[in-house]
Structures are given as C-alpha cells and as structure tokens.
Amino acid sequence: MSVLVFAEHDNNQLKADTLKTVAAAQAMGGEIHLLVAGHNCQAVADAASKVNGVAKVLVADNAAYEHQLAENVSLLVTELAADYDHIVATALTTGKNFMPRVAALLDVAQISDIIAVESSDTFVRPIYAGNAIATVQSLDSKKVITVRPTGFDAVATDGSAEVVALDKATDAGTSSHVNDELSVSERPDLGAASVVISGGRGMQNGDNFKLLDGIADKLGAAIGASRAAVDAGFVPNDMQVGQTGKIVAPDLYIAVGISGAIQHLAGMKDSKIIVAINKDAEAPIFQVADYGIVADLFDALPELESKL
Amino acid sequence: MKVLVPIKRVIDYNVKVRVKADNSNVDLANVKMAINPFCEIAVEEAVRLKEAGTATEVIAVSIGDKSCQEQLRTALALGADRAIQIDTDQNLDSLHVAKLLQKVVEEEQPQLVILGKQSIDSDNNQTGQMLAALTGMAQGTFASAVNVDGEKVNVTREVDGGLQTVALNLPAIVTTDLRLNEPRYASLPNIMKAKRKPLAVKPAADFGLDLTARTTLLKVTPPAERQAGIVVESIDELVEKLKNEAKVIS
Ligand SMILES: Cc1cc2nc3c(=O)[nH]c(=O)nc-3n(C[C@H](O)[C@H](O)[C@H](O)COP(=O)(O)OP(=O)(O)OC[C@H]3O[C@@H](n4cnc5c(N)ncnc54)[C@H](O)[C@@H]3O)c2cc1C
Questions:
Q1: Is the peptide bond prior to A149 cis by the omega test (within 30 degrees of 0)?
Q2: CA–centroid distance, residue A277 to ligand 1 (Å)
C-alpha cells in the first residue's frame, strides 16, 4: 500500500495545509510520497523533504506545471497513479480544480473534502453545508481523495525524506495561463490563523473594514468576510468564509455584522470559540456563538480595539 | 455556438436539512426543492452569451427522475431554448453524471459547457472537471468572468490567493462561482412560454453505460451541535471572558 500526496505550494513556499493532508494520508496506511509539481520550485522540494511521515519527495519541475494548470497536472498525477492505492490532495482551489480530472481519467469516483479517515476505504465528509455528516465507502481499487485541512492536525517537519527528480512534461496544450491578480496581505492566511475576525453586510462598505484592522493587528488575526460583503464589493473574493468559500477553524472567530446564514456557518462553526457582534438579538449567529454582544458594531469595534 | 448547461435539482438553499432517524440519509420528504444556485448562475451566463450574440442556442440538461423537469422548466423560463431530461431514479456518483453528460456532449457538440462549481447538497465540486477530463477539454473552474474571444475563451477564476485568468481552447468547460453574475427572475410571460419549449426525455439506460455505484453511503449523522453560549453586557465583560474563561487571548 502506498499514498501519493500532492503538495500545495506557489513555487516558493510549501503551504502549511499540506502537513494536515499528510496526517490524513498517514491514517490511510502505507508509504507516503509527496509530489511537488511546479517550476523553479526547489525551495518547496527542500521543505517537502522535511515533512514527517514522508518516505520520498517526487519533484516534477517543468514550465508545464508553473501555474498548476489542471489539464497538465492531472496528466502527470494520472501517470504516477499507477504505483499508488491512494491519491490525495488538499481541498483548496488547486486540488479541487485538478483532482476530479485525475479521478475521471482513472475511471474512479472521488471522495471530496474528507474530515476523518475510518479505514483505508472509508471516509467521513460533511454534506449539505455541514448540516449532515456522511460516512462513505469507496468501492474503487484506487481512491482519489481531497482532504479538508481543518479535520486534521499537522504533522511535524523534522524529517528527512529522499528527494527524487522526475523527468516529466505533460502539457495537454489546451490551456494557458494569462495572469494572476493575487491579494497581498501582511496578515496570516485565513486557513492558518489562530484568530479570524470577519465582517459582513453590516460593515456597510469596504472602508469600514479598516475598523477590523486594529483588532486584527492586536490579535495577530486574519480578516475574513461573508458572501454578502464580497458580493457587495467591500472586500475581495479570497476573503469569503463559508460553504462555498474558505473553511476555517481557528481558536477564536469573531463575526461582526454577520447574520449567521447556514452557508456562512458551514465555514466557521468548528472554530473553538465564536464571538458574535450584531445589533439584532435575534440573529442566528448568536445560536452558535460562545459569547455574543448585542451592539452596534460602529461602537463596539473601536471600544474592543482600545481594550485589547 | 451552442452552449450546454447541465443543471441539478437540489434542496432549496434556505432549508436546513435534517438527518433521518435511522441515519440512512437526510430526510428530503416534503422539503422545498429548487435549481442548484450555481446551476442557475450557469443558465444566466449562457443566456447572456446568447443575448450578446455569442451563443446561438442554449440547451439545459438534467439527470434525475421526472421531478427535475420542474428545474428544466425554470431554465427554459430563464431563457434556455430547449431541455433534455436524462431519466433515472438512481442516486449517481458524479463520475456517472459526467459520463452521461459526455454522451450528450458527443451528440450535441457544444462549444461551451457551463456548469455550477458544486451542488449544495453533496458539496462534491467534481462534475465539471470530470466531464472536462472525459471529453479532453480544458476547464475554467470557479469562474467570475467568461469572455469568448474567437477560438478561445478567457476565464477569470476565484482562487485561494485572489483571481487567476486562464485562456482555454474551445470547446471548453466552465464552472461558475458566485460572482459570475446575478441571475434574473423569470417573468410570468417567460414562465408561460417555457411550458411550450421542447423538453426531450431519454432513459439513462439507453446510453449503454455501466452505472454501477462506486461508493456506498454507510451512514449519515447530524453534526455535533454547538451549544449557544452567553450574551455579554459589555465589551469589558467580553474581553474578560476571552482572557480568563476561554483563554484564547492574553
Ligand atoms: C449557493 C450559495 C452559496 C453561499 N455561500 C456562502 C459562503 O460561502 N459564505 C457566506 O458567508 N455566505 C454564503 N452564502 C450567502 C448566505 O446565504 C447569506 O446570504 C450571507 O452569508 C449573508 O451575509 P451577511 O451575514 O453578511 O449579511 P446579512 O444576512 O444581511 O446580515 C447582516 C447582519 O449585520 C447586522 N448588522 C447590520 N448593521 C449592523 C451594525 N451597525 N452593527 C451590528 N450589526 C449590524 C444585521 O443585524 C445582520 O444580522 C451563499 C448563498 C448561496 C445561495
């Protein structure tokens, strides 16, 4: 038995969530190989070799993989899949993009977004925006799986795996990268932060999100948002927390001017402590909040910042 | 060019689903059903391409029992030209849905297939990508902008770090994200007109595919319920609780 894990990275840094996906892979059983597919990605390969539990790091460094286009990466992973029982990626936008292609090319079903491993063929995953938890058994000989990072604890990074360079250049020739418009932020990643403060429609405009900055600075927090705040153009799409955005489970989640729709709760209700600031005492967010305060956010936020 | 829009009938997004007492599945008896919101965005995008003169025909297709004709009529009311129901009462894996859609693609030869990025019931986020692999097409998933430009389509995608734009050879697959457009409401005259638009029914069995299940749903349980906490009276009290009771700030 062996497991191929796809490493999440941007050619410079190995994403910390990969350490959680490796933890999930350990529960599936067998030798773990970590695939680094990218271009000029030696730094990632070095970091990958230190991930505990990994026996071998496979590095496919080629221009065809620079932007991890699904068409090209899926061909690579499908080729490599012959040697593995489990093919595993993190359920972030890269993995979500190419993994179902791999599954279809291998003619197997994919099990998406698992939060627990029951056995080598049985997995637990949320459905219906997390309002039900399904236990699913795969009947295929190969398992193609994406892992929700919040379900697993990261493995340590004091290992020393062998690094093997692959000579691959699978280019489907059907797609090309045009450009990226990436958000730049000094703050921690939403997925990695131990404190997240999110604003909703109640923030009224993008400028008012500055009211969250001082608090985020003091708490080392990442800043998130509801869909309504993103749709209204207050903040960029990569800040959306929820069923169809980012899934977070920090130690502390502060929801400000967010009503608590099921789609939003799906992305944050596994947080350890939830705080809600909302002027409507009936808002559903209070049903999941450990600490709620019924207040106008324009009064509450400056006061909170000053008292931290 | 033809645009194919596969759509799914799902629980209405406002409904909080309940798990059956025997833990066999969720309980959908007497629950309000609707077109999956991401599929609705896909229909809207296709109709806009037609209105812009880029698309010539919009075909909606759904796989399910007779009840999904209701959602196909919704798509027709929103502006699709005709509809296909692939009839089955089996609960199919996304792989099978993609294989059935592949057959439709072979028959209809669309230049663009627009699907929702995920359905809000199974939350799988698979079908579009699988269809792309099976047909050998390129894919632009989680799209917030779609621009057809000659033999190519440029798709701006919502990714973890922000936005990414890719150029895809046509024919191609697009899956929609929330910001792609805001679907219109169907007008009463259009709802009436939709009743007379063609809707073909084809049994899934006629496609000659092996649709044996690849997964078994062993059980479905409710999630751990969070206990509602307390309402604090002041910011001072909140800070005190976070420090001394929850110990999440120092
Ligand atoms: C297919 C689909 C997918 C979706 N995916 C997501 C998702 O991933 N993430 C997500 O968040 N949503 C998602 N949604 C949207 C979701 O259903 C809600 O519409 C959305 O979460 C509402 O955002 P909100 O709470 O900011 O806005 P609202 O529901 O409008 O709530 C605003 C809140 O702010 C409070 N407020 C207003 N002014 C003040 C003030 N001055 N002080 C204090 N409080 C104030 C109000 O009392 C209210 O409770 C999705 C919906 C669909 C259909």
A1: no
A2: 13
List the CATH number of the domain containing B190: 3.40.50.620
Per the domain annotation, does B144 fall within a domain? yes
- Distance from the alpha carbon of residue A22 to the mean position of ligand 1, in angstroms: 34
For A12-41, what is the mean pLDDT? Answer: 97
What does the DSSP 8-state code read for residue B137?
-
Chain B positions in Cβ-Cβ contact with residue A94 (cut-off 8 Å): 159-160
Confidence check: pLDDT of B228 > 90? no
State the count of interchain CB pairs (< 8 A) between A and B: 262
What ipTM was reported for this prediction?
A: 0.96
What is the secondary structure of B181-214 as a DSSP string?
--PPPPPHHHHHHHTTS-EEEEEGGGG------S
Tell me how crowded residue A262 is: count the other CB atoms within 10 A of its CB. 20
Cβ of B163 within 8 Å of Cβ of A182? The answer is yes
Q: What confidence tens digit (pLDDT) does each residue in A48-83 have?
A: 999 999 999 999 999 999 999 999 999 999 999 999
Alpha-carbon gap, residue B58 to B26, rounded angstroms? 33
Residue B115 lies in a domain: yes
pLDDT of B250 > 90? The answer is: no
Q: Is A231 in the pocket of ligand 1 (CB under 6 A)?
A: no
Residue B97 is assigned to a structural domain of this protein = yes
CA of A98 to the centre of ligand 1 (A): 30
The predicted model gives B10-34 an average pLDDT of 96
For residue A242, report the phi and psi dihedrals to the nearest 5 degrees.
Answer: 150, -175
How many independent structural domains does chain B possess?
1
Percent of chain B at pLDDT exceeding 70? 100
Residues in A closer than 8 angstroms to B11, CB to CB, are 128
| Chain B residues close to A10, C-beta within 8 Å | 161
The closest residue, in CA terms, to atom 31 on ligand 1 is A259
Say if B35 falls within a structural domain.
Answer: yes
Nearest CA to ligand 1 atom 39: A202
pLDDT of residue B143: 98
